[in-house]
Design goal:
The structure is a homodimer of 337-residue chains. With 337 residues, chain A is an alpha/beta fold. Chain A folds into two domains: 165 residues, 3-Layer(aba) Sandwich (Rossmann fold); 159 residues, 2-Layer Sandwich (Dihydrodipicolinate Reductase, domain 2), CATH 3.30.360. Chain A contains 13 helices and 16 strands. In chain A, the strands form two sheets. Chain A has an eight-stranded parallel beta sheet, with helices on both faces. In chain A, helix 1 packs across helix 12 and helix 12 packs across helix 13. The longest helix of chain A has 17 residues. The radius of gyration of chain A is 20 Å and the shape is globular.
Chain lengths: 337, 337
């Protein structure tokens, strides 16, 4: 089978990671990446050997900055089988029209609405639903996290209802424009989008989410209360979580009490950009009382969706079934969970 | 009626506020405060005209620092009707024995266990239970917050169960020793103490709490999910909260989106230390779906228990009934909610 030709439109937090992750796979290649403006990230892309494409109207800007683009976005679209669209939220429709006209497949990210594609993707919960489709959407970091754990738990125990509070990072580590710097900011419009977003993949799940933005950059934390379909034990739940793909259990007793300690461990793991692709669950924080389950999980907002994007390419291009793709992606990215 | 003679043992975050609040009441007076070590807060107490007492073993330290103590802790105990014990958590038993021996009443704070006193106090929920008792305990800031809103809601709708996530400040504004600085730290031992603490005042309430410590100093935020005994409307719930003592509704649309904006408003209110005694609920964040209520509330950890301490003195010294005491305290402290 020939390798699948992948383009990456947008080379920010997600795009640059998808580019590196795709490059590490044996069955796909990065034809080029699109960066809207020339900056340090663009130079890093050149240095890494990626062909850099630019929006037609910005080609001169690139030349002035000493970067010769390999072509325009439209040029790249003609050369690929599938585009991973990591442009900022809500410009998806503009590009979708271009992809449609060119007859190429495209993956959108969680910043776009489910309605843009009609199908949303998570490797664990619904890999097969994106099989062969032209357009799909990898849900956002928080939604991916919820699907990674609630998916297997729902299969094991049937979840009657779930109440989630998301304690959101205020900014990514490389940002310096948002806050709060010392404050807590609730998302007062309820429900927050995360619940309906989970339902775009698991439509039967009765889930409500609340969210508070806090002064941190490293990760989100979620508190989950789930009413199970039957009484269960904490040990049964831990067994399901241990077996769940891309879920990593850690122990406070082992010195991992906080998200900054999780990210310190991620740096020790030696992965690209010190990322933590897995959803991290505190083992001592899992507790079942009767039919009610409580747990905490941490979400590395910059990277948890990266393996999902790789798997989504395989599903849409009919390259491998779900478990095989997850295994391939994991091996290439150094994920052993 | 003669004014009640009050001593304050411990002059930190809570103690210094209780001292000022008691001083503002017409029916009680501060005989003296106890500070363990001479520091800038001790000098401020002297400057404010409080008689400063010291532990016997530290009297020399005070003299060396140029502060002449009015006496020892034991001296102060002999001069008061009631002591408000704001010493650090878990030294309560040591002092309780002294109060007991001297036959004086004493209030402990939320850092002590309910079992120390056998009765815990909240002005709204159970004022009368501390009527005339020798020892009572004003519950902690987070517990006080939950009682302020869940108490009236339970009366109006009967709460079947409540799931609360507490997003806790890492340190008080004046602290510089704790963290996390950039991270989120869940309390993995479930349930956290807050649920049982609420039950020390409302034993019939089925409540579970989870908590995450975050990088902020100003306030806590709580997300509350409450199953009501019947279907209700958002407007009905708002009406109950509007009528609830020491609960203040704010609007994100009015520019109060975050805890730092709440505290900015508190500074504009001109109260002592720019405190926010009320529990602050975001109006747009209150939502009822069927029988399930969701809301966010913010808690000024340094001050919400202060009016409660004043009321507790009145209950224990049989000075006024609940509503009368709340009204008096509120007027003296500038609380109009």
């Amino acid at each position: 089978m020939a390798t699948v030709k992948v383009g990456i439109n947008g080379y920010g937090t997600i795009g640059k990671r998808v580019a590196d992750a795709v490059r590490k796979q044996k069955d796909m290649e990065v034809v080029g990446i699109v960066k809207a403006h020339p900056n340090y990230e663009t130079r890093m892309a050149v240095q890494k050997g990626f062909a850099v494409y630019a929006p037609a109207e910005n080609v001169d800007l690139f030349k002035e900055a000493g970067i010769e683009p390999a072509g325009t976005v439209d040029d790249l679209i003609k050369e690929v089988d599938i585009m991973v669209d990591c442009t900022p939220g809500n410009v998806g429709q503009y590009y979708k029209d271009k992809y449609q006209a060119a007859g190429v497949k495209a993956i959108f990210e969680g910043g776009e609405e489910h309605s843009l594609t009609g199908v949303s993707f998570n490797s664990t919960a619904n890999y097969q639903e994106s099989w062969g489709v032209q357009f799909s959407r990898v849900v956002s970091c928080n939604t991916t996290a919820l699907l990674r754990t609630l998916g297997p738990l729902d299969k094991a125990f049937r979840i009657e209802s779930a109440y989630v509070t998301i304690i959101r990072r205020a900014a990514d580590p490389g940002d310096s424009k948002t806050g709060p710097v010392n404050g807590l900011e609730p998302s007062v419009r309820l429900p927050t989008h995360h619940g309906p977003d989970v339902q775009s993949v698991m439509p039967w799940l009765n889930i409500t989410t609340m969210a508070v933005k806090v002064s941190t950059t490293l990760m989100h934390v979620q508190t989950v209360v789930a009413k199970l379909g039957r009484d269960a034990t904490t040990e049964e739940v831990l067994a399901v979580l241990r077996a769940a793909p891309r879920v990593r259990l850690v122990k406070a007793a082992d010195g991992i009490k906080s998200t900054n300690q999780i990210m310190e461990m991620a740096r020790d793991l030696g992965r690209d950009r010190s990322d933590m692709y897995e959803i991290v669950v505190w083992e001592e924080g899992v507790k079942v009382v009767g039919d009610t389950l409580y747990y905490y999980q941490a979400v590395h907002q910059e990277s948890d969706v990266i393996p999902e994007n790789v798997d989504c390419i395989r599903a849409m291009c009919k390259m491998a079934d779900g478990p095989a793709s997850v295994a391939q992606t994991n091996q290439a990215l150094g994920i052993d969970h």
